[in-house]
Specification:
With about 525 residues, this protein is an alpha/beta fold. The protein contains twelve helices and 15 strands. Strands 1, 2, 3, 7, 9 and 10 form a six-stranded mixed beta sheet that branches. Helix 4 runs parallel beside helix 5. The longest helix is centred in the middle third of the chain and has 30 residues.
Length: about 525
């Protein structure tokens, strides 16, 4: 069949492959995943202001999945879904942002290692989670669920080629090459390339040093179109391009050592872009991510597959392609997508309509008593259905908090000081602080800006329904409209069925509020009781 296969995972969720390969023919796997990149922002998808030649090559020569959905619009729960093949709500603390990873949630990486694979990673792994610190953390996992870190090679002053100061100093490609040359030896390997980009913060205005142009930017409809927002989007684009550059170097290196044509390349991102109404939201710009797989020898290329796929499908696909048993892992929820990869067809391929699920609980520390904003969503056909389980809560976080050093001092509404200047980290903290967020808050009194501010931070109805083919910005809620009643009821039934089947505590109990009780190991903020907001 094939001598060996290398599996490259990049920018979004990529889904694995399955073969009846002999032990000595097992594929190598390289998984590359960017941090906070929406589906719309690759050259292959048609973006005019984001240049991604490496991703574009993988998509052009391989299989491009036009409807890939992250497990969550936040990094930790989304990565939890990838590595376990289970919805994040099935994984207790090990599915929640900045909580503890329990030993019993065995990642597929462990099984690959037991099956003779050399495993490792560079950059961001499965996090942020708290792993075991001492023997007292006896129920916690000791090492990152993505594998042992190889991130020692850094950019320093004498060799710093980074596009901007906000870019992480890790030399991803250098660490990948070190792993291949020194760790892999004669074993097949699984290597996780986890870029920290384009996660914030950015060097503001860095785009000016890279010949980028404000006029090239396509501003999403849920954001105001002006130079401040366009510049912020260009700084974001710059960081995507850095991630893509290291992927390109990995491809070129594999070509040099004669492995590229024996390599399966997969590219994805963990969730959408770090802007208001995107990341930490179950809308298209929050959960719809780039996804492409290249391996022409086994997967007919130059194809776009439109079936919805989800992150929970990744683990079973990888186990299948490596002939690795799932014994030792908790029951996997996802289904392998090998048949989609091996098909020669384009478009919608499955005989029965596929569905992709996503959800969120807690993201940042953003509400009273560290409450989250529970959401569950399903994508099927042209429609995205979202269930906001606690519509009385602020979706982007509370608009007011207590001072860091004086928890009796209540800061002003919207985090605006007496000069109408936004104070970083003081309101709507599920939105990463950034120029776009600051602009919306400081200018919400402007009638032309208020609608965008409201879209980002206002409370939402319990149910939302969008035709994402016609309305990718998710601005026209079709929920409750009579002509869409049958579609809405069908999706609601499908979502509820999946939640019951997967024993979502929000639905089956006995404690539907358990997610809000998990300890957070990242910084905490103090907020007033909701009724006390003024």
């Amino acid at each position: 069949m094939i001598s060996r296969i290398v599996f490259c995972f990049a920018v979004s969720s990529i889904i694995g492959l399955g073969f009846n390969a002999k032990a000595q023919e097992r594929p190598n796997i390289l998984f590359a995943i960017s941090d906070d990149q929406s589906f719309f922002h690759t050259g292959f998808e048609g973006s005019k202001f984001v240049k991604t030649p490496a991703f574009d090559r993988v998509a052009r020569e391989g299989v491009y999945f036009s409807n890939a959905y992250a497990g969550s619009p936040g990094c930790a729960p989304s990565r939890s879904a990838i590595i376990t093949g289970r919805h994040h709500w099935q994984n207790e603390q090990a599915g929640q942002h900045a909580s503890a990873w329990l030993q019993k949630y065995v990642p597929f990486v462990d099984l690959l290692e037991k099956n003779g694979y050399a495993t490792g990673r560079t950059g961001k792994g499965v996090g942020p989670f708290q792993y075991a610190r001492t023997e007292e953390d006896s129920l916690w996992r000791k090492t990152d669920a993505a594998g042992v870190s190889h991130s020692n090679l850094k950019y320093e002053e004498q060799n710093d080629e980074r596009f901007a100061t906000g870019i992480n100093t890790t030399n991803y490609f250098g660490n990948f090459r070190y792993f291949v040359e020194n760790i892999k030896k004669d074993k097949p390997f699984f290597f996780w390339y986890g870029g920290y980009e384009p996660h914030r913060s950015y060097e503001k205005g860095s785009w000016k040093n890279m010949s980028k142009k404000l006029e090239d930017v396509e501003v999403p409809e849920f954001l105001p179109d002006n130079d401040e927002i366009r510049g912020d989007l260009l700084d974001y684009a710059l960081e995507i391009e850095w991630f893509d550059l290291h992927l390109q170097r990995m491809l070129e290196y594999l070509d040099e050592i004669g492995e590229l044509e024996n390599t399966i390349v997969i590219v994805t991102a963990d969730n959408g872009m770090p802007f208001p109404r995107a990341k930490a939201n179950s809308y298209e710009y929050g959960v719809h991510v780039p996804f492409a797989v290249r391996y022409p020898k086994e997967f007919p290329g130059n194809r776009v597959v439109d079936d919805p796929i989800g992150f929970i499908d990744l683990a079973p696909t990888i186990l299948e392609v490596t002939n690795t048993s799932a014994k030792g892992m908790l029951p996997i929820t996802g289904k392998s997508i090998l048949e989609l990869l091996q098909s020669k067809e384009r478009g919608v391929l499955s005989k029965t309509e596929r569905t992709a699920y996503s959800g969120r609980e807690r993201h940042s520390s953003s509400r009273y008593l560290n409450w989250g904003y529970p959401q569950r969503s399903v994508r099927k056909g042209d429609f995205l259905f979202i269930w906001n389980m606690k519509p009385d809560r602020w979706p982007a976080g509370a608009p007011q908090k207590f001072a860091e050093n004086d928890t009796t001092q209540l800061l002003p509404m919207h985090g605006l000081d007496k000069n109408n200047t936004y104070m970083n980290g003081s309101a709507y903290t599920d939105i990463d602080d950034c120029p776009t967020k600051t602009y919306l808050i400081e200018n919400y009194g402007d009638e032309s800006i208020l609608p965008y501010f409201d879209l980002a931070v206002n409370k939402r109805p319990e149910y939302e329904l969008y035709n994402v083919q016609q309305d990718p910005s998710c601005l026209k809620n079709l929920s409750g409209i009579p002509s869409f009643k049958k579609i809405e009821e069908a999706l609601k039934t499908e979502l509820l069925g999946e939640l019951k089947k997967s024993n979502d505590p929000r639905i089956v109990g006995p404690d539907p509020e358990v997610f809000d009780s998990y300890k957070r190991y990242s910084p905490m903020r103090k907020f007033p009781k909701p009724d006390n907001l003024n």
